[in-house]
Amino acid sequence: MTNAQVFSKDKYDVGALRVEPQRIVLNSDLPVSLRPYRTSPVEEQEIKSQVEKLLQAGLIKESNSPYSSPVTLAFKRDEGKKTRLCIDFRKLNALCKSDSEPLPLMDSLLDKLSKAKIFSSLDLASGYWHVPIHPKDTEKLAFCTNFGLYEWCRLPFGIKVAPAIFNRLIRRILTKYKIDFACNYFDDIIVYSSSELEHWKHLKTIFEICEKENIKLKLSKCVFAQTKISFLGYEIEQGKVSPNNANIE
Predict the structure, then answer these.
(1) 14 is a domain residue
(2) What is one Gene Ontology biological process annotated in the Swiss-Prot or TrEMBL record (predicted)?
(3) By the 8 A CB rule, do 73 and 82 touch?
(4) Is 24 exposed, middle or buried (0-12, 13-18, 19+ CB in 10 A)?
(5) CA neighbours within 13 Å on the CB side: how many for 10?
């Protein structure tokens, strides 16, 4: 496959979208400041390891912010243990101004896909981390550990407005290039075509856009040139849309 450079080497190998840094707007100027959660030695070592990788990738930086949200580890199914680094932004989220970006209409997306015969599903690697945060707002995204304070330079998971910000940016990128053979639903981009030959041309165009816009894809989660695709709990094949049997219980 060509355009190998658009595929991420690991979860920390993400691009920075060529967009204006995004703002995090709060309803109060009073900082949220919480103490770090207690962690076991094993958990603390896991947190340290991930923080170091985030620092090396430039996704976070050391901080002296008045804001502070605590870190926790969540269970990661594919690893069978608590290794998912999460920031408890609940207090900060209570102060975040809402974003009215509408969710994509499921019926509209399914209608577009039902007219196609060949599909690819592209997964953006660590999707939100592609989004740069305005320097004036990074301090609001500070998080505390038992060994230091850090702040996000990119959009983190767990912030209330993250889905709206991310979905809007990807939608605008596709609109900018007048793409009518792909749609996005958060960190998934579905490419759809009427023939295999047309589909490979469409994929090439999307890969070129990814290069221009500094988007990285997660190869292990991408699916290419299928006659049937699962999307939003439905299966689409040869013009038919039906509920995914795996979701019917």
Answers:
(1) no
(2) DNA biosynthetic process
(3) yes
(4) buried
(5) 5
Q: pTM, whole model, 2 decimals?
A: 0.91
CB-based contact 13:125 (threshold 8 Å): yes
Residue 105 lies in a domain: yes
Residue 26 lies in a domain: no
Q: How many domains does the chain have?
A: 1
Structural domain range at position 151: 41-243
User: What is the chain's Cα-based Rg?
Assistant: 20
| DSSP string across 155-199 | PPTT-TTHHHHHHHHHHHHHHHTT-SSEEEETTEEEEEESSHHHH
Local confidence pLDDT in tens for the 249 residues of the chain? 567 899 999 999 998 999 999 999 999 999 999 999 999 999 999 999 999 999 999 999 999 999 999 999 987 776 667 788 999 999 999 999 999 888 878 888 888 888 899 999 999 999 999 999 999 999 999 999 999 999 999 999 999 999 999 999 999 999 999 999 999 888 889 999 999 999 999 999 999 999 999 999 999 999 999 999 888 888 888 878 888 775 544
Phi and psi at residue 158, in whole multiples of 5°?
105, -15
Q: Is 48 helix (H, G, I), strand (E, B) or coil?
A: helix
Contact call for residues 149 and 63 (beta carbons, < 8 A): yes
Q: What's the CATH number where 154 sits?
A: 3.30.70.270
- Asked if residues 15 and 130 have their Cβ atoms less than 8 Å apart, the reply is yes
Question: What number of other Cβ atoms are within 10 A of residue 175's Cβ?
Answer: 10
Q: Which two tokens stand for residue 246?
A: 């795996």
Rounded Cα distance, 156 and 151, in Å: 10
Q: Is 4 inside a domain boundary?
A: no
Beta pairing class for 69-76 and 81-87: antiparallel
